[in-house]
Amino acid sequence: MASVRLVALKALHGWSIMSSSSLCNHSHSLLRHRTHHHAFSIRPFSAIMSPPSMAVLYDHHGPPDTVTRVVEVPPVELKETDVCVKMLAAPINPSDINRIEGVYPVRPQVPAVGGYEGVGQVHSLGSAVKGISPGDWVIPSPPSSGTWQTYVIKDQSVWHKIDKDTPIEYAATITVNPLTALLMLEDFASLKSGDAIVQNGATSIVGQCIIQLARNRGIRSINIIRDRAGSDKVKEKLKKLGADEVYTESQLEVKNVKALLVNIPEPALGFNCVGGNAASLVLKFLRQGGTMVTYGGMSKKPITVSTSSFIFKDLSLRGFWLQKWMTSDKAKECRKLIDYLLSLVCEGKLTYDMELVPFSDFHTALDKALGNLGSQPKQVIKF
Fold first, then answer.
1. N or C: which end of the chain has fewer CB within 10 A?
2. pTM for the full predicted model
3. 295 assigned to active site
4. Catalytic annotation, pick one of 104, 170, 295, 340
């Protein structure tokens, strides 16, 4: 088998194919040559090289549409436990943009390749890799930087094998947003069937996932969206996902928002990804002793909480950051939770809006992700 693999690798990388005796004589010749010329270095014939890769690189932090460029990355030699993955798809997440801007708390050292999650197909393996085979579909789990390139080389411990029947856009995006939704539902309150949650930013992927994951557990959801043209269609769409109530922010400009609820209990748990007035609306809905979890701040406005909310309602304010969870002891659960979420996708119980865009149109997708072309679905690069 070893000789077959060597021939295959030589063919893959354009090496000439020799007989075993010729190869042995050739190696001795090279070694004699190296003995007389110490500066001469050779790469062993067993070395496995990745193909050259096209990558989205940034040399310094700044506006993503000006500091990113697509470049060719030369082949890399695989170490014993390395896996070379041909990327199939990777999303453009807000946190990816923040890393490039230099405002995210954790970011790779520049120059760096963008992207943090995605899905790919195993291309080649280091000699000591076990449990993964060429052709397998894998995702970095926990997520790992540098997924915006055609070939990614990382240690086998980074990669998690998934079902090849999974739609690539869901496999590429299952970790950052759906996992955030699942963990927030589970970690901050003991919810049971018949309970309720309230959230703003309901049209975000996390918001769409919260609606569906809550519905699957019999948990009611109250959803707040911003005022915009076509809000009636947005409401209808969210209700099809399983939302019980959907309100625009202007609809909640009343003294007693809870009077709007019919047959829905006061929520014990709320989620905020907007800040400002939208966060205050979430707080208004919460019951005595309720908790609001903040996981984003799209409005870039602070959260203002009345004194009475603390004294008389005993509300709690918490925060969630997936990156921190990934570095905790709980991160061991990550792959089981990912498999669970992917099973929901395959069963048609979890869906969200995305747009697949060819890698050749990366900068158009980036403009959409930056909001330069108006409100757009999640941009997923297809390699």
1. N
2. 0.85
3. no
4. 104
